[in-house]
Sigma non-opioid intracellular receptor 1 (Aplysia californica), 223 residues
Amino acid sequence: MGLLPRLRTLVTFSVLGVILVFGIRYWLNQKSYLFDEKSIAAIARKHVGTASKKSIEVAFGHVVEDLRVKYKGHILPDEDLQWVFVNAGGWMGSMCLLHASLTEYVLLFGTAVDTTGHSGRYWANITDTVLTGTFYQWQEGSLKRVVYKPGDTVFHAVGEATSVSWAAGTWMVEYGRGFIPSTLTFALADSFFSTTDLLTVFYTVKVYAKALLLEAGFYIGTW
Ligand SMILES: *[C@@H]1O[C@H](CO)[C@@H](O)[C@H](O)[C@H]1NC(C)=O
């Protein structure tokens, strides 16, 4: 291929890329959303007491019940709920996906051991409400860490990167809003290239596919 056709291909792909990014941005700004961060945080906060008095399992059970009442038909059924390891940014946690679409997700997240690493930069706003344990966040440019305790909500904005650290036994409820497929590359990167734990990759993709099918079924049903 000569230089000119190559240049033309490059320009075409760049233009398509820019159109795609602006198109998705426009869509994210215009569309209406099922969940909002305040409602999810409020549901999580309601069960902080249960988490400390009884157990995190009982508290998470109540969170799921409340979500099923408020967002009927949008939370995966019990048989599809699965705790899946997440290896990303050098840390290791575990998540239980409750809802996911192309623009939103709700999940339970945490770790049974101390773990630390890079938060990742996402095309999504992510909020975490802590039920038990301690979440440490070190923001870019800062020389101090911020400490989050049960009942606190951590906000992670689009494009932001922080250092994150969780004490053993930190469990939380997480809500993400943005272009969700873009967060998957980070969530799976360490499983692909570091741990090569392809079973975890499979579980993650499988549960995301199930959640997408639930949403597709819901919208076909309401038509
Ligand atoms: C993320 O949050 C910021 C600040 O609240 C907001 O301006 C922006 O639209 C949000 N982005 C998405 C994708 O929801």
